[in-house]
Amino acid sequence: DYSRDDLADAVVNAGAPDVILDHRLDDYLAFDAEVAAQGARIAAIGNTDLAATFENVPRCRAKALSVHHVSMFNTPEFGAVLSRLATLMADDDLTPVVARRYDLDDVPAAHNDVLNDSFLGKLVVTP
Fold first, then answer.
1. Cα separation of 105 and 91, whole Å?
2. Distance between CA atoms of 35 and 1, rounded to whole angstroms?
3. Where are the domains of the chain?
4. What values do phi and psi take at 93, rounded to 5?
5. Where do the TM regions start and end (predicted)?
6. Containing H/E element for 123?
7. What is the pLDDT of residue 49?
8. CB-based burial, 34-72: b 16+ in 10 Å, e otherwise
9. How confident is the model at residue 90 (pLDDT cuts 50, 70, 90)?
10. Cβ distance 126 to 98 under 8 Å?
11. Which DSSP string corresponds to 54-107?
12. Which of these CATH numbers, 3.40.50.970, 3.40.50.980, 2.10.10.90, 3.40.50.720, describes 7-69?
């Protein structure tokens, strides 16, 4: 939840993550590097700044971090992923977190929130 004032403390108290999925690389790459475990992997999913980089390269090198640039549109086989998710949901082993729900008329607001807001969980549009 990027809006938390105590985000760094919350992450550190939960234990340094081995994998970080970052949709806001422009704003949080330095933060990711700070809280990541030794040898962690950062999946860089979204950014708009072409110059997004680490603020402290030697510290990142010392942690042996790796950054993997990922596109949400290059997964070769969505069927297997969706099938696995369906199985996990059916077995109650996966519970999605819904941050907000929107009526169909509020799709522009939902889209705006995806681009500009900070939230933890999924945004859901219902007809």
1. 33
2. 14
3. 7-69, 95-127
4. -100, 0
5. none
6. strand 122-126
7. 73
8. bbbeeebebbbeebeeeebebeeeeebeebebebeeeee
9. very high
10. no
11. -S-HHHHHHHT-EEEE--TT--S-HHHHHHHHHHHHHTT---PPEEEEEEGGGH
12. 3.40.50.720
First to last CA, the chain: 27
Q: What burial class does residue 117 get, using C-beta atoms within 10 Å of its C-beta: 0-12 exposed, 13-18 middle, 19+ buried?
A: middle
Query: Is pLDDT at 39 greater than 90 in this prediction?
Result: yes
Six-digit token string for 69: 């640039």
CA distance 121 to 127: 20
Whether this prediction's pTM lies above 0.70 is answered by no
pLDDT per residue as tens digits for the range 54-80 = 777 887 788 898 888 877 666 667 778
Query: Which residues on adjacent β-strands are paired with residue 125?
Result: 102
